[in-house]
C-alpha cells in the first residue's frame, strides 16, 4: 500500500516555481564576487584595488538582499523561512509539509541568516581595513578611523574570512548530503527557479522584476556615493 501511495504521489508531482529571478541572480552573483575577492586578495599589489571594487559590489548586493527580504517575493522574504524552534522540530521529525516551506526549509533558512551576517561583518571590516603593506589600497572608510583601529579591522577581516570558508564548506556539505541522503536537488531550483513538488502546489506571490531593479539601483547608488565619492 505504501509503495502504491508513493508512486501515486510521484506521478502527481509537478514543477513549481519557487525562486524568482532576482533571488537567483543574487545567489550566483554573490558566489562569483566572493571568488573574485579571494583571488584579488591573494594576488595582492594593484589587485587590491579590484578587491575593493568587488567588496563594494558585494556590499550593494547584501543591502539589496536585506531589502528584498522584506519587500520581495514570498519565498525570498525572511518572514517565510526564518522559523522558530517548533517549525524546526517539525521539520526534523518529517512532519512539516513541503508546501509550508517551499523555499528554504527551517534549517536552511537559518543558514542563510548566518551567511548573510557573516558576509556583512566581512564587508564591514573590509571597509575600515588598512593595506598594511603599502597603505595604497586602504578600505574606503579607513581614513575616518585611526591607523591602529584600521589595522585591527584588517586582522579581524582576515580572521573572518577563514570562518566564512568554514561556512561555505558546511553549505556545500549540506547540499551534497541532501542530494545523496534525501535525494533532493537544491542546486537545480536555484538555477531554474523551479522545484518538483508532490500534491497541491502552494500559491506563491512573486514581486515584479522592476521592483527588484529599482531596489538594486538604489542600493548600489547609495553605497557608491557613500563610499567611493
Automatic annotation (TrEMBL):
Which GO biological process categories is it annotated with?
respiratory electron transport chain
Quote the InterPro entries the UniProt record gives: Cyt_b561_bac/Ni-Hgenase, Di-haem_cyt_TM, Hydrogenase_cytochrome
Instruction: Report one GO cellular component.
Output: plasma membrane
Output the SUPFAM superfamilies linked to this UniProt entry.
Transmembrane di-heme cytochromes
Q: Where in the cell is it found?
A: Cell membrane
Please give the Gene Ontology molecular function terms for this protein. Answer: electron transfer activity; heme binding
Q: Where is the Cytochrome b561 bacterial/Ni-hydrogenase domain?
A: 18-193
Q: What is its main location?
A: membrane
Q: Which UniProt keywords apply?
A: Cell membrane, Membrane, Transmembrane, Transmembrane helix
Membrane-crossing residues?
21-38, 50-71, 107-130, 159-181, 206-227
Q: Which Pfam families match?
A: Ni_hydr_CYTB
Q: How does it sit in the membrane?
A: Multi-pass membrane protein
Q: Please verify whether the record's keywords include Transferase.
A: no
Question: Has keyword Cell membrane?
Answer: yes
- This protein's name: Hydrogenase
Which source organism does the UniProt entry give? Chromobacterium violaceum
Recall the taxonomic lineage recorded for the source organism: Bacteria, Pseudomonadati, Pseudomonadota, Betaproteobacteria, Neisseriales
Amino acid at each position: 500500500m505504501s509503495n502504491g501511495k508513493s508512486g501515486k504521489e510521484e506521478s502527481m508531482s509537478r514543477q513549481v516555481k519557487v525562486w524568482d529571478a532576482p533571488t537567483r541572480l543574487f545567489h550566483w552573483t554573490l558566489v562569483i564576487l566572493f571568488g573574485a575577492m579571494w583571488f584579488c586578495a591573494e594576488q595582492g599589489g594593484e589587485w587590491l584595488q579590484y578587491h575593493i571594487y568587488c567588496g563594494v559590489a558585494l556590499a550593494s548586493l547584501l543591502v539589496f538582499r536585506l531589502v528584498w527580504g522584506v519587500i520581495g517575493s514570498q519565498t525570498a522574504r525572511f518572514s517565510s523561512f526564518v522559523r522558530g524552534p517548533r517549525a524546526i522540530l517539525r521539520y526534523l521529525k518529517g512532519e512539516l509539509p513541503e508546501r509550508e516551506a517551499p523555499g528554504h526549509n527551517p534549517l536552511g533558512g537559518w543558514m542563510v541568516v548566518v551567511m548573510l551576517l557573516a558576509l556583512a561583518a566581512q564587508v564591514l571590516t573590509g571597509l575600515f581595513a588598512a593595506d598594511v603593506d603599502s597603505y595604497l589600497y586602504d578600505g574606503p572608510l579607513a581614513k575616518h578611523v585611526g591607523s591602529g583601529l584600521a589595522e585591527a579591522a584588517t586582522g579581524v577581516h582576515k580572521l573572518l574570512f577563514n570562518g566564512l570558508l568554514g561556512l561555505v564548506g558546511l553549505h556545500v556539505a549540506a547540499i551534497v548530503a541532501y542530494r545523496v541522503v534525501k535525494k533532493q536537488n537544491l542546486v537545480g531550483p536555484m538555477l531554474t527557479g523551479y522545484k518538483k513538488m508532490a500534491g497541491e502546489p502552494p500559491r506563491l506571490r512573486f514581486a515584479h522584476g522592476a521592483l527588484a531593479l529599482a531596489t538594486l539601483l538604489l542600493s548600489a547608488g547609495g553605497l557608491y556615493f557613500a563610499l567611493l565619492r
